[in-house]
Task: structure prediction
Amino acid sequence: MPNILRIDSSIKGDASVTRRLTAALTEKLGDGVSIRDTTTIPLIDGAWIGAAYTPADKRSDEQNAALALSDELIAELKAADAVVIGLPVYNFGVTGPLKTWIDMVCRVGETFRYTDSGPEGLVPAKRVFVAYASGGVPLGSDYDFASGYLKQVLGFMGLTDVTFVSAEGVAMGEAEAIARAEEQISGLAA
Result:
């Protein structure tokens, strides 16, 4: 695939299991990888919300500046042919940095719109691969609040072709959990 967007959200840097898995996934999928480290994205605030809900032709220079990074992140997402997301599970949910990226890219009129029949995603369809890693929260379990949430948000924006690879039980055996996830990656069709 020519244009792959890799989104990393672990705060563990080089020690991150999901960063290792997103690297393996992007290597499997091909060249042309753009990496977005969400740990450097600032939180949205009231000024950001005000700008996002002001019609584009009525925004002040300050409001346009407040949305500049959001516009860049949305453009990256829309331009990608495939997306690879690192999903480390912290306290049963998504990381703060990943939630911040989600808040920046979920914008009415940009990545979704409301219609009479409900919300409609505006992001062009593409494959999404998610590298899920947890210390002990099994993917899809009753207390996995990360994968269902991420799948819902992606679908809300129009991204419904989502494949998970899972390194579960990292706290009980990191090498084994990574090996199981790498085996899943090797079985994926590029």
